[in-house]
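Chain A, query sequence.
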Amino acid sequence: MIFKEKLTSVVTIISCLLMAAFFISPALMSISLASLLLIGLVSFSKNTLSLDDKSLKPLLFASIAYFLILLISMFISNNEVEAQRKFILKLPIALMPMLFFSLRKLTLKQISIIVLVFVFFVYLTGSISSLVYLQNKEYFDDLILQAKPIPILFGYGIYHIQFSVLNALSVLVGFYFAIKNYSKLPFIIPFSLLLFSSINLLNLHVLSARTGLFGFYLSLFVMVSFYGVKVWETSKKKFLLGLLLFLFLPILFVFISPSLQNRIKNTNEDIQTITENLNPNDKSVAMRVEAWKTAITLLENNPLGIGLGNVEEQMQFQYEKNKTLLTEQNRKNPHNQFLETALQMGIQGLVVFLVLLFLYFRYYAKSPIGFAILSLFIFSFLVESMLERQVSIAAWVFFIPFTYFLNKTE
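Chain A, predicted structure.
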């Protein structure tokens, strides 16, 4: 029995470390996530839980409902191969509450190492990509003005929007955990976290992907709001100082980052394209708006959903019916997780998904970092179909439960 517990503990820690190092191997990431989910299922079946069962019960029931609708959506798809692939890809979302059970025995020191590994790998990836940008600044600045991203040049090919969200997440988690636990850990850990998180913050603005940037400042605003109320009650001067710092931070980075300045110029052109109803081709935001319109029309005609494997094909048909100005290579997926979920699983699937999100928000109602991380992901869901790719699904499934344990005191 003792051997089994030790083995489970070792597998849990190794799996967490491999999950934190997202960029090494998709195969290792999948194996690690599957291991954590399996450990959680075993713990759940044995009822050896140390968490608040009452608060987790609604999450468990909503997750079961999500699984059932996901299963039905797979069977109603015409494209069976794609539907099965999507089902396997999204299955961890339905099993996500199990991670609350598999991670419950992690110690503060183990959690600190996991956080440090995650922040370091984001630092390594972001720094290499930023360095390449600086070495080819003129070329990449021209690409930014054409609504093209700065490529992420490390690992197995994570794309820029995913990485920007992970980058923002690393800054939030790194600073929060280091500041909260600086007196409880060896000096080198909080110091390293603060150092790498600071560089990650700079890289976030240099690489200038809008999803991560807007999501970061939204989540930062959430945290400032949480703590602002308490600070206001004790010291209005400190509150005003913190507010000024919050407002000054983006202005500072706009001033020092030419890539961000170019991204702002490109965004203004995008907005002008939308407001003046100009040709949306090769305009990132304008193409998203066109994709949203197409997805909404398709959903109006298919409120019960079209199946997990049919969205891409049906979107292309709908683009044609709408007589879109977009060229074929610019006709993308809905670029919105809520629309994507509704198309795949119907309005009933969207409702269950929204209930799940509400329950996670309620679960973290008194946790500033939990609420902030949820806000970051929710914003990314509004502008990107994040839960259609392996890395972002793994990040969502792992970090939302993992955030619960960032407040451990021992």
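The longest helix spans residues 108-135. The chain is about 75% helix and 0% strand.
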